[in-house]
Amino acid sequence: MVQCSRSLSVTLIRLVFVCLNSADKVAASSSQCGRLVAASCATAALVAVGCSNAGPELAQVRGRITLDGKPLRDAAVMFVPETGRPATARTDLDGVYELAYTQGNRGALLGTHEVRISTYRPGYEGETPEGVRRSITERPERVPARYNEESELSVEVTPGNNEFNFDLMSE
Question: Is residue 143 within 8 Å of residue 75, measured between CB atoms?
């Protein structure tokens, strides 16, 4: 979906109204010109609909996670809101993450979130759709349950840019 600023959306909506108000006058003077104005109005209306903010309000969320003072690399990060879809990320080599709400939509819902951080990865053995044999070794959980399954971590996501750093301790 097209992401548009509020001012562009308002401008497009005004253009649709101007087109619709002008279409009758132009149609009376020339049927071909009237069809052109009608087509322009329809196009502007479709663009205006595409620019509407139909999804939930999101805010950018990023941060850094350490475990016992060292960057926690390749950890799954999940912000679980009180209601709605969670946002997820994976930390990089420096323990840095940036949440995604859906593919292509960065951020998280506004409000209170339980935060879950995990390094566990189940093992897998099998073939890919292309027929390539693949094996992934199970990776055990290094993060204590108080940061994932029984998380004690909670944050408040507010409009704008949010930065949440977590300094976890294994003991």
Answer: yes
